[in-house]
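To: structure desk
From: M.T.
Subject: fold request, one chain
Message: Could you run this one when you get a chance? Sequence is below, nothing fancy, just the single chain.
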Amino acid sequence: MNPSNSLTDLLRAAQAGDRSSADEVLRIVYDELKRIAHHVRRGAGDTLSTTALVHEAWVKLGQAEDITIESRAHFKHLAARAMRQIALDEARTRQAKKRGGGDTPLTLDDAIDGRIPDDPVAVLDFDRALEELQQLDPRAAQVVECRVFGGLEVEQTAEALGVSTATVKRDFRVARAFLADRLS
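Reply: Done. Structure tokens follow.
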């Protein structure tokens, strides 16, 4: 049995309520989750530590009842999505505490380069544009989620979404153009 299959089996067992499988999954993927969290955290400011983000995402994934985890790549995509949601909730909380927000616009190039500003308004603007893209082209939005928030490479994104690398590249070009227009 290769490691990916055993992880997939453990993920399924954990999802079915097997506590020892859940503990084993966390032990196996913890470093990967920390890498993803470190990438996502760049946009969440200093109020949310990498470890806290990993743990909150783990709890969020554990509470999701309607998700079927199909593979390690699919799990990484789901983890990136959970961390994005947690980081956005944090940005919303910070924005609610701060009147007016900042004046720094967020560009897709900034996000891709990992320079998401510490400005909750800019992060929320990016999320609103991404939600709009989700309505028009769900797969392109998933590609952005994997690449920008998950820090996944083209090949990893293709595996997570079950598409070719050419499709990921094409969707990413479309998404970049769409989001650049919305954020300008």
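Reply (cont.): The mean pLDDT is 77. Let me know if you need anything else for the meeting.
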